[in-house]
Amino acid sequence: MSLDRRTLLAGAAATSALFTAARARAAEPVYRPDLDLSGKSVLITGCSSGFGRLAAELLARQGAKVFATMRRLPRSEADALRILALNERLDLQVIEIDVTSDAQVAEGVALAEQAAGGAIDVLVNNAGIGITSPVEVQDMEATRLIFDTNVFGPHRMARAVLPGMRRKGAGQIIQISSQLGRVITPYSGHYSATKFALEAMSEQLAYELVPHKIDVSIIEPGGYPTRVWVNRNAYSQALKDRAEARHTEGYPQQVAAMGTEDGSGRSNDPMDVARAIAALLALAPGSRPLRLPVSPGNKPQVPINEVSARVQTEWLGPSRAGPLVRAVHER
Fold it and tell me: CA 224, 226, 228 angle in degrees (round to 5)?
């Protein structure tokens, strides 16, 4: 790809106008309680609690064939979800997938595809973890674990479902990111680093899958009171217990707080994210937005998303990659 300044400047005004017009007509996902998802197969990771569990229940109640995955089976959360599905006669199957395991990802997706009778229609990459501390305190064990879960996990899952989706010529991948995938707060460990990576990987994937008619959307939730805080405290406490004084001594207040975070004061309804997933499924293929901020409160990532989309379109619009980029951003 060869671009010079004159080419970029010549195309900037036109692509900026197209981008502005496209933003004005972009599809807005709207959740409807009467939404009928019959005939859709949906695989969701991280369904033991939180967004994953709520999305699995909601989509199944609206008619989808749901594969709710979680790690470390057998476990009580899986039993409870199976009982719920049985009592409500939901088309919901629990499958063991630890997204950090190549073997479990391959086996779990193959099992879901067999049960679905072909390619999975929708993959929701929800599984994720947080480990909070100053960056210096994040040892390589913590760093590998969070990247393996939050970045490599979604990558493994996408690679597992994409051959089937491509053969079918249709599909949808929904990535659960965060506001902190676009803005950064201090002392949050590598959480933002992993979510920034997920955002970049997902956007590139969205461009590359345009010819295959597979949509990629990134949901960016704000803060919600889910069990992510319980798990984060366990990981952060374990890190604190093994941390070396030469790394912790520079951050006494922040290290003292590790393992004691409390998300219970948050009042946002986690069902917001489940409904956003359902709303994305309801949109027509090719009309789904690349990024969807979800929060009843402040959405600090919105202007960042808008500038990023405009820059991508203006920079790459005149290039050979232009049709792919415009197809994603000019919806």
Answer: 105
- The helix/strand/coil state of 181 is helix
Q: Which residues pair with 220 in a beta bridge?
A: 293
| Residue 136 to residue 247: CA distance in whole angstroms | 6
Which three-class secondary structure state does DSSP give residue 196? helix
Strand order in the sheet with 171-176: 92-96, 65-70, 41-44, 122-125, 171-176, 214-221, 291-294
| pTM flag (> 0.85) | yes
Separation CA 270–CA 188 (nearest Å): 21
Specify whether the CB–CB gap between 52 and 68 falls below 8 A.
Answer: yes
In the chain, what are the domain boundaries? 29-306
Cβ distance 115 to 93 under 8 Å?
A: yes
Bridge partners of residue 65, in order along the sequence: 41
| Beta-sheet strands, E only, within the chain | 41-44, 65-70, 92-96, 122-125, 171-176, 214-221, 291-294
Give the number of residues written for the chain: 331
Handedness of CA 250, 255, 256, 257 (dihedral sign): positive
Angle between helices 302-316 and 5-25 (to 10 degrees): 130
Instruction: Tell me the pairing of strands 65-70 and 41-44.
Output: parallel
Look at the alpha carbons of 70, 89, 118, 208 in this order and tell me if their dihedral is positive or negative: negative
Q: Which residues are catalytic?
A: 48, 177, 191, 195
Residues 221-267 pLDDT 10s: 998 888 778 899 999 999 999 999 999 999 999 999 999 987 666 67
Residue 148 exposure: Cα atoms within 13 Å on the Cβ side: 12
Q: What is the β-pairing status of strands 41-44 and 291-294?
A: unpaired
Q: Which CATH class is domain 29-306?
A: alpha beta
3-state DSSP call for residue 199?
helix
- Is residue 313 scored above 80 in pLDDT? yes
Torsion angle of C-alpha atoms 30, 32, 35, 41, degrees rounded to 10 = 50
User: Which two structure tokens, joined as six digits, stand for 51?
Assistant: 């967004």
